[in-house]
Design goal:
19 strands, Immunoglobulin-like, 288 residues
Length: 288
């Protein structure tokens, strides 16, 4: 048998949870002792002997009051199973009382992003609606989160014009075609805790944010100009193309389809010489 109490997390130390008594549903641990006068002679004492994780509670040995002695945090411990011994006038444990204390969770933790700042690269040919980044945000209270995206910096680099965020998943997507987007854009992704607190109050919902820096990579395309020559495989063209460091895999860095040819047949493209065959590939039909 046991006594149960409930308290809200973050209740201040020194607060009284409740009062214990020898008349509570205690287990008689000394059946041969005469304990009928424990309540009348005032000689009973209380001793907290087990279940007091992190020394959260204190029991007044004379009054039997259960007092908060440390921080109460639902995320650290949501349930305490205390054991209190009741001693007679000579110090013999005559009864034991089981005390359950349930901690009520409050919405007291703001959401947190895994990263405060991150850099991404986006191709300017990325279609509208495509996902370009998925930030990871968590809430220690398990609250539901919603997301918003705000621009950062001057209007010329305002990512909110070009990008959007799904308010439920937080995934950042392309809002409009990036062909005219600035090369470098800044945005702030905001996560908001949408759960009400225990009183139903919506005031004071917590928010947190992270900064997203997006670099738009424009596909470099050939214009059919270069240094011409002729080899056994047919006509060829030499062209220099600059590639942005950390360019996304799949980015088009050159397009040979516009190169003039002396042949009337449909050309087929292939890489015939390279210092590193694993870095670049060519589409044999399109020339990209």
């Amino acid at each position: 048998m046991h006594v149960a109490f409930s308290i809200e997390e973050n209740t201040e130390p020194g607060s009284i949870v409740g009062y214990l008594s020898s008349t509570d549903l205690a287990v008689d641990t000394h059946a041969d002792a005469d304990v009928s006068d424990l309540d009348s002679d005032g000689n009973e004492t209380y001793w907290l002997v087990a279940g007091n994780a992190m020394d959260t509670f204190i029991v007044d040995s004379l009054t039997g009051s259960l007092v908060i002695g440390g921080d109460v945090d639902y995320e650290l411990c949501s349930h305490y199973a205390l054991v209190v011994s009741i001693l007679d006038a000579v110090g013999t444990c005559v009864r034991q009382l089981s005390v359950d204390v349930l901690v009520v969770n409050l919405n007291d933790n703001p959401p947190q992003f895994d990263l405060d700042l991150t850099y991404i690269t986006i191709r300017d040919a990325t279609p509208i609606g495509a996902e370009v980044y998925a930030p990871a945000a968590r809430d220690a209270d398990g609250s539901r989160l919603s997301y918003a995206l705000m621009g950062a910096g001057p209007p010329s680099t305002d990512a909110a014009h070009w990008l959007a965020v799904d308010d439920v998943t937080g995934h950042v997507v392309v809002r409009r075609a990036l062909t005219d987007a600035p090369r470098r854009m800044h945005a702030v992704v905001v996560a908001r805790d949408d759960d009400d607190d225990v009183s139903g109050d919506v005031i004071g919902r917590a928010t947190t944010s992270m900064t997203l820096v997006a670099t738009v990579v424009k596909d470099a395309r050939s214009r059919g100009r270069g240094l011409w020559g002729r080899g056994l495989a047919g006509d060829w063209q030499q062209q220099r193309v600059a590639v942005v460091e950390c360019a996304e895999v799949g980015s088009v860095v050159a397009d040979m389809a516009g190169v003039a040819s002396f042949c009337s047949s449909t050309p087929v493209y292939s890489v015939v010489a390279a210092t590193d065959f694993d870095t670049f590939t060519v589409d044999r039909f399109t020339g990209e």
